[in-house]
Design a protein that fits this description.
By secondary structure, the protein is of the alpha/beta class. Helix content is about 30%, strand content about 15%. Strands 5-4-3-6-7 form a five-stranded parallel beta sheet. It folds into three domains: about 160 residues, Aconitase, domain 3 (2-Layer Sandwich); about 120 residues, Aconitase, Domain 2 (3-Layer(aba) Sandwich); about 180 residues, 2-Layer Sandwich (Aconitase, domain 3), CATH 3.30.499. The longest helix has 17 residues.
Length: about 475
């Protein structure tokens, strides 16, 4: 087993005890909740006459079900209105901090916690959402959990978990022009597989990650779960500290905090269960073509021939070709696009919007394409508008929306229709993920989404 890694240190520091099952009872330092997975959990603790044990360690927002065109209350979707009302009532009843719409702090849960400094190195973090691994970018150990586990954390501030193995994933070198953090993680998932990380925590290391800013690191850690890993993290460093300094919940004893954060970094002689190495120069703009995030290829590659794939990949490839209405051997470049979506907890931050706007400047969205941009939070929206990014998007023909999860998972009005195909900066391309049972999703970086919007087809952003 691993030894001396950040994961080992944080795990040990938060261990309450060992349960009869052999699992660890782990203390959770920060619990993030939203409107989808929390109502049943609150009902469960209410049935047992329990209260939230540490309401000051729980923070709530609304993101999945909020409309992004018109957020006037009551919501047009009665179920969405019921869900937000339940969250309003539950947070009020239990004294939990709640960032509601129009509070100035609402947004996607994995965007607002980092931007406010709630997420910090050395923490254990849990949330009833798969992409909680995002917070690992700060050197935290962050787990996505189910509703019954949300109940457990509300009631006891602990989780029962089996300790993971640790795989170190090194990427070294400078990324080529037009290649972004999204391409890096899609490349890793492509090479290691969607089940490659099962039973592991991923530690991302190497010069490529060291040079990334915090928002790029969040993009990488966000999609660890797509590679099968339970969590992913990057050791904290000066980039981390510079990002956190001065934020709302940053530690008051700053130098003392940095000293402690430095102490939890993986030791130079740390032992890992596995080590995998990649070269940044081998990565090009990457696009998924199938129905799992692991079915990705470089922009200049052609779709695989099922017969040439490893036995385990053949069946899912054949299924993917049938669903996606694509042909083996055809180039991914030039695939027609109907909808272009920029946003989500993966790529809805200010740096994502800046880069997308840089590409969009002076261009126009193709006539046959619906393109829209959804900021990850109210703060991101305010910052983008202060910089005039929204005007660049509007001038190019994009729609500019209110914050929310939007078309990432379509638990709101933003949905594909029929068998529309989308270029999306989100994290999952499963069948029906974006709201239509026949809808098709191609994952790519925000810059690549802009290129697709402008040309009306999958394109190489480097040519713009």
């Amino acid at each position: 087993m691993s030894k001396g890694t950040l994961f080992d240190k944080v795990w040990d520091l938060h261990t309450v005890g060992t349960l009869p099952s052999g699992q660890t009872q782990l203390f959770i330092g920060l619990h993030l909740i939203h409107e989808v997975t929390s109502p049943q959990a609150f009902a469960m603790i209410r049935e047992r006459n329990l209260k939230v044990l540490f309401p000051d360690r729980t923070v709530a927002t609304v993101d999945h079900i909020v409309p992004t065109e018109n957020q006037a209350r009551p919501f047009a979707d009665t179920l969405a209105e019921e869900m937000i009302q339940a969250l309003e009532n539950n947070t009020k009843e239990n004294g939990i901090r709640f960032y509601n719409t129009n509070s100035g702090n609402q947004g996607i849960v994995h965007v607002i916690a980092p931007e406010q400094g709630l997420t910090q190195p050395g923490m254990t973090i849990a949330c009833g959402d798969s992409h909680t691994s995002t917070h690992g970018a700060f050197g935290a150990i962050a787990f996505g959990i189910g509703t019954s586990q949300v109940r457990d954390v509300l009631a006891s501030q602990t989780l029962s978990l089996t300790k993971l193995k640790v795989r170190k994933i090194e990427v070294n070198g400078a990324l080529p022009t037009g290649v972004y953090a999204k391409d890096v993680i899609l490349h890793i998932i492509r090479k290691l597989g969607v089940n490659g990380g099962v039973g592991y925590a991923y530690e991302y290391a190497g010069t490529t990650f060291e040079k990334m800013n915090m928002e790029e690191r969040m993009t990488v850690c966000n999609m660890s779960i797509e590679g099968g890993a339970r969590c992913g993290y990057i050791n904290p460093d000066k980039v981390t500290y510079d990002y956190l300094k001065g934020r709302d919940f940053a530690p008051k004893n700053w130098e003392e905090a940095i000293t402690w954060w430095e102490s939890i970094r993986s030791d130079a002689d740390a032992e890992y269960d596995d080590i995998v190495t990649f070269n940044a120069s081998d990565i090009e703009p990457t696009v998924t073509w199938g129905i799992t995030p692991g079915q990705g290829i470089g922009i200049n590659e052609s779709l695989p021939i099922p017969e040439t794939l490893p036995e385990n990949d053949k069946e899912i490839a054949i299924e993917a070709f049938k669903y996606m209405q694509l042909q083996p051997g055809q180039p991914i470049k030039g695939t027609p696009i109907d909808v272009c979506f920029i946003g989500s907890c993966t790529n809805g931050r200010i740096s994502d919007l800046r880069e997308a706007a840089k590409i969009a400047q002076g261009h126009k969205v193709a006539n046959n394409v619906k393109a829209f941009v959804v900021p990850g939070s109210e703060r991101v929206k305010q910052e983008a508008e202060a910089e005039g990014l929204h005007q660049i998007f509007l001038n190019a023909g994009f729609e500019w929306r209110e914050p929310g999860c939007s078309m990432c998972l379509a638990m709101n009005p933003d949905r594909l229709q029929g068998n529309q195909i989308s270029a999306s900066s989100s994290n999952r391309n499963f069948k029906g993920r974006q709201g239509s049972a026949q809808g098709r999703t191609l994952l790519m970086s925000p810059a690549m989404v802009v290129a697709a919007a402008i040309n009306g087809k999958v394109s190489d952003v480097r040519e713009l």
